[in-house]
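Continuing the series of single-chain predictions for the mutant panel. This is the parent chain; the variants come on the following pages.
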Amino acid sequence: MNINIMLKNKKKIFFSILGILFILTPSNSYASILTIFKPLGFIAAAIAHNVTKVEVILPDGATVQNYYLRPLDLVKIKHSDVIILIGDQIEPFFLKKAINYFKKKTIVLSEVKSIKFLLTHDFNFEKSKKKQKNTLQNEKEINNISYDMHIWLSPQIALESAIVIHDMLLKLIPQKKNIIEKNLKHFKSCLSKTNKDIKKNISSIKERKYFTFHNAYKYFEKFYGLHPLGRFTRYPGIQTGAKYLYEIKKQLLKKKARCIFTEPHLNSNIIDVITRGINIEKGNLDLFGIAIPLVQNSYVNFLVKLSNQYISCLKHI
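Parent structure:
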C-alpha cells in the first residue's frame, strides 16, 4: 500500500477516535485548569481547592522530551477553561499547536511582570552553543540573556504564580470569591512556615558541597542557601566532554564534594562510571514531585520532600 495512503488512513482513524471521545466525554468531567508540568499543578491545586478541578498532562516519570499527546490529552485541552504555561520556549511545540487549534485561554507565567522580575539569568550565556529545543533543560533566551525556566523551584515565583491563578479564578468563578481568597491566604501561610522550617532543617548541611546531574536547581539552592560544586551536564541528552568529566573526577578524588545527585527519570550511567572506586554518597532529587497527589498542600509537600532529599545525602560526614 502506498505510504501516503497509509498515513492518510491513520490520520482518519486518529481523528475519528478523537471525535468519538469528544462526543462521549462530558465537559464537566475534566479540569478547568490544565498545565503540562505537575509542580505547576501543585500551585494551581492550592488556589483551586474546593473551587474547580486541576489536571496535569505529563504523567509521573515522563518528560517533555519523551512524551507525545494522547487523544485523552486533547480532550483535556478542549474542555479546560485556562491552561497555565511557563513559556513558549519550554512547552513542547505540539502542545502549543493543540492550544491554538482549540483557541484556549492561556496564562504564560514567564511573561507576567512580577515573575519576569524574579527570573535568574546568566550574562555569560553563549548564543552560539548548541542547545536542545523545547526542553526544560534548555534555558529561555531573551535579548541574548538565558533565563532558568524551572520556575516552580522558586518559592518566591510560586507565590507570584499563586496570586496570578487567584486573580484568574476570581474572573472565571466570581461566585466562589470567599473560597478563593481563603485558599490564597492558606497558601501564603503554609509557604511562609515551610520556608522557615526548611531553612532551619537545612542549616547544618548547607555549606557542604555536592554535584547535581544538571543545572536545574538554582532557584531552590539560592533561596535556601545551598552551594553546589558543579554539575555533570548542562543539558541531559547532550554528551559531556571528557576533559570536563576528568576535572569533576579530580575534585571527587580530593573529596571536595559530599554527594552526587541524579534524578529518578534520568539515565545516570555517566555518574556510575565516573564514581567507580570513589567512596561518595549518591542521592536522587525529584524535580517533578513524583507520587505527590494534587491536593491543597501539594506544593509545600513538594518543597519539603526535595529538601529532605538534599539532607539525607549531605548529612553523611
